[in-house]
Write a structure and sequence with these properties.
ten-stranded mixed sheet, about 45% helix, about 20% strand, globular, disordered N terminus
C-alpha cells in the first residue's frame, strides 16, 4: 500500500485541509513524473556502431542518425566500437542501461550470422536485445570474369555443371556474407565451386579481372564501376527485387534460380527490457527518417536502399527468419571462421 502524503502528526482539526493540499501535491508529483517520461529524449542519445569509422555500416548509420536527430530534437552521437567482426560493440550494447539513451546500429552480421559461427559470444542475439527498427538493405551483385563464356545466371549454372570444381569464387574471407552468398548459391544451383578467400575485395577484383578467379558476389558500389569500364561482367543482383542502383540487372531469382535472395540488412536495437511505448517512439522516428528523400539519396551513394518501414515485431520476425536461413547454410556447408 502506498504511503499517505499527509504526515500522521498533523492535528485532526487541520487534517482535511492538509489532505486536500497533499492530494494536489501528490497529483502534481505524479504528473511531473509522467511528463518527465513523455519528455524523452531530454539529452543526446548514444548509438553504438560495432564496426570501424568510415566503414559501410558507419556511413549508413551516420546518414540515418542525422535525420533521426532532427526528428527527435536531440543529437544521436555515433560511438564506434569495432572488433571481432562487430561482436565486441554488440556485446557492450547488450549491457547498456535500459533507458533509451543507448542504442545499437548493426547489421545481419552480428545478429543472423555470428551466432552460428562463434561458439562463445558475449551476448545472445535473440534474448539480450530489444528489436526496434529495420532501416536499410544492401544487395550484392554477381560478377564474373569477362573471359568466362557466360552472360546469364542460367548459362553460369550450366557451365559449372559441365565443369564441376573448375570454377573458383573469391570472397572477403571465411564466414563473411560474400562467402555465405556464394555457398547458398552453389547449393541451390547444385554446382561445385572452389572457394578462394581473400582479406578483402580489392585484390580479388584484380584477380577476377585477370581470370585467376571466375566469380564474386560483391557490393554494388564497388563492383559496378568495373562493369562499366569493361573489366568485369555483371549477371544479376541478389535482392528479392531489382536494385534502383542497377535497374537493368535482373535478380538471381528471376534469371535462373527461383527463390534465391540475399541482402545485408541494417537495423536498430536497444538492450533487452525496453518499454514498448519508448520502443514505438524510436521506431517511428527511424521509419520517418528512412522515408526522407535526402536520406534515400544519401544512402544510394553507399549502395544501400531504405527498408520498407516495419514494426518492431515485423523486424524481429525478419531477423529470426534470416538467422535460421544462415544457420542452415553454415551447417550444410561446414563453414567455419578458420
Amino acid at each position: 500500500m502506498a504511503r499517505p502524503c499527509v504526515p500522521p502528526s498533523v492535528p485532526s482539526s487541520r487534517r482535511k485541509a492538509v489532505q486536500a493540499l497533499a492530494a494536489v501535491a501528490c497529483g502534481l508529483a505524479l504528473l511531473g513524473t509522467a511528463q518527465g517520461q513523455d519528455a524523452w529524449p531530454v539529452r543526446p542519445i548514444r548509438v553504438i556502431v560495432p564496426f570501424p569509422a568510415s566503414g559501410a555500416t558507419d556511413l549508413v548509420a551516420r546518414v540515418i542518425a542525422q535525420r533521426v536527430s532532427q526528428e527527435l530534437g536531440q543529437q544521436l552521437i555515433i560511438d564506434n566500437k569495432p572488433g571481432a567482426g562487430g561482436t565486441i560493440g554488440t556485446g557492450e550494447a547488450a549491457k547498456a542501461v535500459v533507458d533509451g539513451y543507448t542504442l545499437l546500429f548493426t547489421t545481419s552480421s552480428t545478429h543472423a550470422i555470428s551466432p552460428h559461427l562463434i561458439p562463445r559470444l558475449a551476448y545472445k542475439a535473440d534474448k539480450d536485445f530489444t528489436p526496434i527498427a529495420h532501416t536499410a538493405d544492401a544487395a550484392s551483385v554477381l560478377l564474373v570474369t569477362p573471359s568466362l563464356p557466360v552472360r546469364s545466371v542460367q548459362e553460369l549454372i550450366a557451365y559449372a555443371k559441365a565443369n564441376p570444381g573448375q570454377l573458383n569464387y573469391a570472397t572477403s574471407g571465411n564466414g563473411t556474407i560474400v562467402h555465405l552468398n556464394t555457398a547458398a548459391f552453389a547449393a541451390q544451383a547444385g554446382i561445385q565451386l572452389t572457394h578462394v578467400p581473400y582479406k578483402g575485395t580489392a585484390q580479388s577484383i584484380t584477380d577476377l579481372a585477370a581470370g585467376q578467379v571466375q566469380l564474386l558476389f560483391d557490393s554494388i558500389p564497388t563492383g559496378m564501376p568495373h562493369v562499366a569500364s569493361g573489366r568485369l561482367r555483371a549477371l544479376a543482383v541478389t535482392g528479392d527485387k531489382r536494385s534502383m542502383l542497377a535497374p537493368n540487372l535482373p535478380t538471381v531469382a528471376e534469371s535462373g534460380l527461383p527463390g534465391y535472395s540475399s541482402v545485408t540488412w541494417f537495423g536498430v536495437y536497444g538492450p533487452a527490457g525496453m518499454k514498448p511505448e519508448l520502443v514505438g517512439r524510436i521506431n517511428q522516428a527511424f521509419n520517418r527518417a528512412i522515408q526522407n528523400p535526402e536520406v534515400i539519396a544519401s544512402l544510394a551513394k553507399q549502395g544501400v536502399e531504405p527498408a520498407k518501414p516495419q514494426t518492431p515485431a515485423e523486424f524481429a520476425a525478419m531477423v529470426k527468419a534470416d538467422s535460421a536461413r544462415w544457420a542452415k547454410v553454415i551447417k550444410d556447408n561446414h563453414i567455419t571462421l578458420e
